[in-house]
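Duplicate of #3305? Posting structure anyway:
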């Protein structure tokens, strides 16, 4: 099940990225060459129209699909369903933009007085956008229907944050030798044990022995 989910996540990310790349690539190409014939003696004028000029939504939808490829990994639950819906809508926008050009033509400008406009359409690029639209629509449905069950990118970081701290490394003879050399460099005696703290009482000759309160009171009376 885990491997199947990973394959589905990979397919969704690849579908968004490929669809977005196709849309952006096609949008930057020349979709039509328009020839404007004017009243003599004015010469004819030729102009080229790119996909972004003829169908601006192609570029916008392509950018949205590339962002969705990252969002599929970053979000989870209901957020992933929302991403799937957006990807599906982007696919619908691509299909509408491309089919409008294929059916209605690429030249949307009106002819001026005494002008005639003829557009030569390069149909391969709108068709490529249709392919991107189909891929985006299928990917969006996959994310919307199955995405809620996929693992999110942040879970492994959450597991790492909640893991128990690593046990301290056991000190070796080499570590102790290095500590001794550092002590010599500081001018300290490495053989001294800092835990040896004699508790000799300066007023009593017995080391580490507390004075007797009764004896102390008797000495004060004398």
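Output from current build:
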């Amino acid at each position: 099940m885990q491997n199947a989910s990973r394959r589905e996540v990979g397919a969704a990310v690849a579908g968004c990225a490929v669809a977005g790349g196709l849309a952006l690539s096609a949008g930057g190409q020349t979709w039509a060459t328009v020839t404007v014939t004017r009243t003599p003696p004015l010469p004819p004028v030729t102009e080229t129209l790119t996909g972004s000029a003829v169908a601006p939504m192609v570029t916008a939808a392509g950018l949205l699909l590339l962002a969705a490829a990252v969002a599929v990994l970053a979000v989870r639950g209901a957020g992933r369903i929302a991403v799937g819906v957006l990807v599906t809508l982007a696919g619908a926008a691509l299909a509408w933009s491309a089919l409008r050009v294929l059916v209605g033509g690429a030249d949307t400008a009106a002819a001026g007085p005494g002008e005639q406009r003829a557009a030569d359409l390069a149909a391969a690029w709108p068709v490529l956008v249709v392919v991107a639209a189909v891929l985006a629509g299928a990917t969006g449905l996959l994310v919307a229907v199955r995405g809620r069950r996929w693992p999110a990118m942040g879970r492994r970081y959450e597991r790492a944050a909640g893991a128990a701290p690593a046990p301290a490394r056991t000190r070796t003879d080499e570590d102790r030798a290095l500590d001794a050399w550092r002590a010599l460099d500081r001018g300290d005696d490495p053989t001294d044990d800092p835990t040896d703290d004699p508790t000799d009482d300066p007023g009593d000759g017995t080391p580490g022995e507390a004075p007797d309160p009764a004896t102390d009171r008797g000495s004060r009376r004398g």
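Confirmed duplicate; merging threads. The chain has eight helices and three strands. The two ends are 93 Å apart (CA to CA).
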